[in-house]
């Protein structure tokens, strides 16, 4: 049997969309607060009263957090990790001893069985000390081997792998390739059947978080269609020590310097068929379903970062004086502190609500998790940027340099670098906009999609027209009026009721804008990515406003910081309303058409004169490395944790 020699398959835009669409979870068997929100239906009953964890889950979760906090205080040297760009073996072994690698694994397999809520709180805690350690644990459990096995693995696979993973066998997720990012239709790594009991893997994977030290890998590879094999992108559990696997490089980044992220080559790697997760062709669906809750780990880390930024901003802005008073008392700085405090409260509210909804399993949270990831990564980056600005030159100076001259070693610039990747990890902001937009308009496409589908004949379009007519005759009148126009609505929320009325009114306004855009652009709607991005951003603000109001009311009802929580929620909602109103204005008043013309000019070389007068310090080499299958010519840099 010869190794395949093809590079990434050439696919059309339409073919790529078809692959992505086939991987989507098509059905909605449970209600979704966010889905309803985009449809103009404010279902507050789905999130209020705020869901709460069971007493036993709280007991086990708090007990573990106490142990984890003690370990982080004594066993995690964040400065050393940043300095040496590596998490020490003793730190990893300490986490193993705590059971931190089995936080989400069922106790019957040796794990801790924590809820999503407490798992995310653990990640926020660890990430506040060292984002690199947080990424290690998150990549292992949120997208690595444990979660897809939990959801899709056979009992034999669970029995074989989950106990190892709970004990600390580190796992990694391998999907991205040097020539394949968010377009999985072009996946080039192959898994060729070898008889009935095995597959042979060939290909190269890029940005394999944890891949440098992993023992077990989830690998996505394309199985060629043949007799007895339906083929398609398929998921496999692969032993990292298998012959033919070479970690060719440990990648280095602007942040997360302790991240064990590499380039992994597979050359004739034999994988037992028993290690295939699910049927052939189900790999992308498995990946996307895993991410429905797996994405919550990033906003958890972002929430932790926001809380740390608030602490530093409070302490520094009270200590630092300029022109006779603390800098916090100057309005230019004070507005930044208010933004940090209000948004930190919102980030925690969003991730806790989404996490608890995941634990309840009463709602479909695929959109909520995606919104939490999108909103958390964008807003945490803004918070960190504002902290650096408040700290001034000290914000730009490294913690090591600050300590060397006798000042407190505050790693503000490191946090800014570490957080930046969250806007790219597990779906970039741009991809998240498109993913969420697709789900948000799913109801419309379900009834009217055939009308704009070029592959449908006239009879099919006619039937779709009748179906759509009935749907919109029932739906559109409901967007005219609602609870948001009744002065006393949501009165139990006190001073926050006005914000919930705004959310209800604006939800209907958002649905009307989406319907108008679909009517106007029809099949070209998918090309209006800037417009769709704004639609999604409005939905994200409305979701965040809902979350903070529900959380503030929970804290008031339990007597736990109720008054200050209401104050933070009020300020956040007022800030969010300003952002939302601006986004609505930009739906129709923007430079999108002009931007496309400028892009055409840039690509055509019209503006190359503007590039004159500078030198390009970039090195030589191709933009994308060669990924031709074959044996590795480089030394294996995989390392084993002692």
Automatic annotation (TrEMBL):
Region annotated Disordered sits at: 618-642
Q: Which InterPro entries match?
A: Acyl-CoA_Oxase/DH_mid-dom, Acyl-CoA_Oxase/DH_mid-dom_sf, AcylCo_DH-like_C, AcylCo_DH/oxidase_C, AcylCoA_DH/ox_N, AcylCoA_DH/ox_N_sf, AcylCoA_DH/oxidase_NM_dom_sf
Q: Does the keyword Cell membrane apply?
A: no
Acyl-CoA dehydrogenase/oxidase C-terminal domain: residues covered? 281-439
The alphabetical list of record keywords is: FAD, Flavoprotein, Oxidoreductase
Per UniProt, residues of the Acyl-CoA dehydrogenase/oxidase N-terminal domain are: 62-168
Concerning its family, UniProt says: Belongs to the acyl-CoA dehydrogenase family.
Q: Which PANTHER family does this one have?
A: ACYL-COA DEHYDROGENASE (PTHR43884), COMPLEX I ASSEMBLY FACTOR ACAD9, MITOCHONDRIAL (PTHR43884:SF9)
What is this protein identified as? Answer: Acyl-CoA dehydrogenase fadE10
């Amino acid at each position: 049997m010869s190794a395949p020699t093809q590079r990434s398959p050439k696919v059309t835009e339409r073919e790529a969309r078809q692959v992505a669409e086939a991987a989507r979870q098509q059905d909605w068997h449970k209600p979704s607060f966010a889905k309803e929100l985009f449809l103009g239906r404010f279902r507050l009953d789905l999130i209020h009263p705020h869901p709460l964890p069971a007493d036993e889950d709280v007991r086990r979760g708090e007990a573990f957090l106490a142990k984890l906090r003690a370990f982080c205080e004594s066993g995690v040297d964040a400065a050393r990790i940043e300095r040496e760009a590596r998490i020490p073996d003793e730190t990893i072994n300490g986490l193993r001893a705590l059971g931190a690698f089995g936080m989400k694994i069922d106790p019957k397999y040796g794990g801790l069985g924590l809820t999503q809520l407490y798992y995310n709180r653990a990640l926020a805690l660890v990430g506040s000390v060292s984002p690199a350690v947080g990424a290690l644990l998150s990549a292992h459990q949120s997208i690595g081997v444990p979660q897809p096995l939990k959801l899709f693995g056979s009992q034999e696979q669970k029995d074989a792998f989950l106990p190892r993973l709970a004990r600390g066998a580190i796992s990694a997720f391998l999907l991205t390739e040097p020539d394949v990012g968010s377009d999985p239709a072009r996946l080039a790594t192959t898994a060729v059947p070898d008889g009935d009991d095995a597959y042979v893997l060939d290909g190269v994977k890029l940005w394999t978080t944890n891949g440098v030290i992993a023992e077990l890998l989830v690998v996505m590879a394309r199985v060629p269609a043949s007799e007895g094999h339906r083929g398609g992108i398929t998921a496999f559990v692969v032993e990292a020590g298998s012959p033919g696997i070479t970690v060719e490089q440990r990648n280095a980044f602007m942040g997360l310097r302790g991240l064990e992220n590499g380039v992994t080559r597979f050359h004739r790697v034999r994988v037992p068929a028993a290690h295939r997760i699910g049927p052939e062709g189900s790999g992308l669906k498995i990946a996307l379903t895993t991410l429905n809750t797996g994405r919550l780990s990033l906003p958890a880390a972002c929430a932790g970062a926001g809380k740390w930024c608030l602490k530093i901003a409070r302490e520094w802005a009270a200590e630092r004086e300029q022109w006779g008073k603390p800098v916090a008392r100057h309005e230019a700085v004070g507005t930044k502190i208010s933004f940090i405090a209000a948004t930190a409260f919102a980030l925690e509210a969003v991730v806790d609500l989404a996490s608890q909804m995941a634990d309840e399993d009463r709602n479909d949270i695929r959109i909520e998790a995606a919104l939490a990831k999108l909103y958390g990564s964008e807003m945490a980056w803004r918070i960190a940027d504002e902290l650096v600005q408040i700290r001034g030159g000290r914000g730009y100076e490294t913690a090591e340099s600050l300590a060397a001259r006798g000042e407190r070693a505050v790693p503000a610039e490191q946090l800014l670098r570490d957080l930046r990747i969250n806007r790219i990890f597990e779906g970039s902001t741009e991809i998240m906009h498109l993913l969420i937009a697709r789900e948000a308009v799913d109801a419309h496409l379900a009834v009217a999609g055939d009308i704009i589908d070029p592959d449908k004949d006239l009879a099919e379009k006619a039937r779709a027209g009748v179906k759509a007519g009935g749907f919109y005759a029932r739906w559109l009148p409901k967007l005219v009026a609602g609870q948001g126009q009744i002065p006393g609505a949501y009165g139990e929320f006190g001073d926050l009721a006005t914000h919930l009325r705004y959310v209800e009114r604006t939800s209907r306004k958002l649905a009307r804008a989406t319907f108008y855009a679909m009517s106007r652009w029809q099949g070209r709607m998918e090309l209006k990515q800037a417009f769709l991005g704004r639609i999604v951003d409005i939905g994200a603000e409305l979701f965040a406003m809902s979350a903070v109001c529900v959380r503030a009311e929970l804290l008031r009802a339990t007597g736990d910081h109720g008054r200050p929580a209401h104050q933070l929620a009020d300020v956040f909602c007022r800030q969010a309303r300003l952002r939302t109103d601006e986004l609505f204005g930009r739906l129709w008043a923007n430079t999108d058409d002009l931007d496309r013309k400028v892009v055409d000019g840039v690509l055509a070389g019209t503006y190359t004169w503007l590039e004159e007068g500078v030198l390009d310090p970039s090195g030589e080499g191709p933009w994308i490395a060669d990924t031709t299958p074959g044996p590795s010519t480089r030394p294996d840099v995989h390392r084993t944790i002692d």
